[in-house]
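Researcher: Structure for this, please.
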Amino acid sequence: MAVTLVAVLGGIGVLPTEPEAAAANLPRTTERQPDVKSDPAPSRTDASPSSAAPAAQTTAPVGSPTVPADSGQGRRIVFAMHDQRVWLVDADGAVRRTYLVSGSVTDNLHPGSYEVYSKSVDAIGVDDSGTMKYMVRFTHGANAAIGFHDIPVLDGSTVQSRDELGTPQSHGCIRQWRPDAKALWEFAPVGTSVVVVA
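Model: Predicted structure, C-alpha cell format:
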C-alpha cells in the first residue's frame, strides 16, 4: 500500500524531483529503470513485448536531464564528466536511458570521441580494486583500459553504494548500478560511438 501511495504521489508531482531534493538536502536518487535481459550477448531488444509483461522503457523519463548539446549526433553513449551522468542515445536522437555514474577521481579521461573496442562479462580491477561485471572498454589509460562496468565487488562487498553514484569514485573507469551496466552492455556492441564531454 505504501508503494502505491508513493507511486500516486510521485505521478501527480507531490513528491520532490531530483533538483528539488538537492535543494532541500534530501538524498539524491537516480531514475528507476526496468531491468534488462541478463543474457550478456550484445543485442538489441526491439521485439514487441508480450501482453503479459510491461513494455520496456525506451526513452528517458519526463524531466530527465537533456543530452549535452556538444555530444555529437546519431546512436551513441554520452558521458558528461562534470555531471557524472551517462545517456544512451538512439540513432534518431531519442534518449533510451540516462543515469548517474561514478567516474575517475584522477581525471584520467579527456573529452572527445571514442569507440567501444572490447567487452567482457567479468573483469578484474587494477590495484586490487575488486571484480566487476559488464565491462565495456572504449579507451586506454596510463595503467589499464578505461570503460563502463558495474560497481566493483571487493571481499564480498561493493566498493561504493548506489547513493554515491553521481560523484567521482573510481580508479579510471565509469561505475554504474548493475541494471544500468546491463543496459549499456546490451546497447553497445563493439564499434559503438562513445562521446565524453567535460
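Researcher: Any notable elements?
Model: The first strand starts at residue 76 and ends at 80. Residues 1-59 have pLDDT under 50 and may be disordered.
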